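step: validate -> pass
step: tokenize input -> pass
step: predict -> running
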Amino acid sequence: MQGSRHIHLIGICGTAMASLAGMLQKQGHRITGSDAAAYPPMSELLAELGIPIREPYSERNLDPRPDLVVVGNAISRGNVELEFVLDERIPFCSMAAVLHDEFLVGRESLVVAGTHGKTTTTSMLAWIYEVASRHDTRFAPSFLIGGVAENFGTSFIVRDRNTEGQRSPFLLEGDEYDTAFFDKGPKFLHYFPDAAILTHVEFDHADIYANLSAVKTAFKRFVNLIPRRGRLVAFDGSENVTECVAKAFCTVERYGLAKDSYWRVSELHHDGPWTTWTVTRGAEQFAQFRLPMAGEHNAMNATAAAALAAGQGVTVDDIQEALSTFRSVKRRLEVRAEVGGVTIIDDFAHHPTAIRETLRALRERYPGRRLWAVLEPRSNTLRRNVFEAALAESLALADRIAIASVFQSESIPVQERMQPDHVVSALHATGKPAMLYEDADAIVAALAGEARPGDVIAIMSNGGFGGIYAKLPRALEAAAGS
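step: predict -> pass
step: emit ->
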């Protein structure tokens, strides 16, 4: 797009959409946007950028008429703004298409894909490149991450393209979710990676994928986009990943705990907030790493980021420095408050596997402390009954469990809808104390009376969860002062 244009984003509070809004603004465009509701961290990012969020959706939000409308993938036919755009023939496109056309052409595209760990791994990779750029400006990264990377305080940075013939690196979180109402393919098929990471492949997004086979087909198509000269770093602990990379034309390097993996992890230890491990590259020791994060899954994420960066020329010293100073991502095991000896953790966990790994990491980080799991079934995956058994199994890692009603349950067909009482019953059958509550306020009232010093409360939701992140600390403070 040449010159300054007025671009309107429908669904601007989506993680990628808010970041794209900032990227386009920095190119000199006038940005407006709308959404049904706004909540942190993306509402805070947009406020910092001076981009107002127009609520609710309305035809008035498109006055004056924009030059281009970017339609978020959560927007469906029937949305009042989308219908106006179609009626008035206002030019529109998807987030992924704008990202490719405006930011990826002429840059080296490095994409992190997988059912789990994308956001954290992309953030680690971006920080590794940032540290490396202090010694070699060729590594100065542009990036787009599905969350706010705490080392940067933002979810995106766009730097000028290298003018010396080098392909400037652009690091991307590759989302397998669909692109837009008119493009039902995964967003990552627009990113054409030069090199990539594949973390996990599991059944997810039950609203758009019929089964695991459909999910694997999407990832196979992603792998098929990597050129012969490219490279794919792939997790070794998943048969689904093995199947998806089997026909790759590029070099494939496996990472993980398997003895025959090219990037082999060993001597993995947890000590409070620190995780340490050794990585062997081929037949030779590559490095020892220290990461200020708990959880085996985070060590695996870091190993994947280190492997991709090393293969692109980043030094071991820079990788070690970056990982030892990595500060995580907002809403990923984020400590939101400590009140009267009670620690409140915010985590984006949206899938039974992610919930399991979150609770395992908290066990390692806070050994011997009573662990609460507080869950809002909000993602399109958790709101469906296909995961009820797996969800109960994951939640059983906590000592106490509180589950809210299914978010907007009426939007899920009854025969597909998750029944929280089934999950509670399954937990009771294993001897786990679990309760079902109507909403966040009911959970806050209960925990204010039951939480005790030393407790760790993990709040898991991919949304605002009724403001529980502010309400619970206030309630605990009030209870402590009474």
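step: describe -> The chain has three domains: 6-94, 106-324, 334-481.
step: cleanup -> pass
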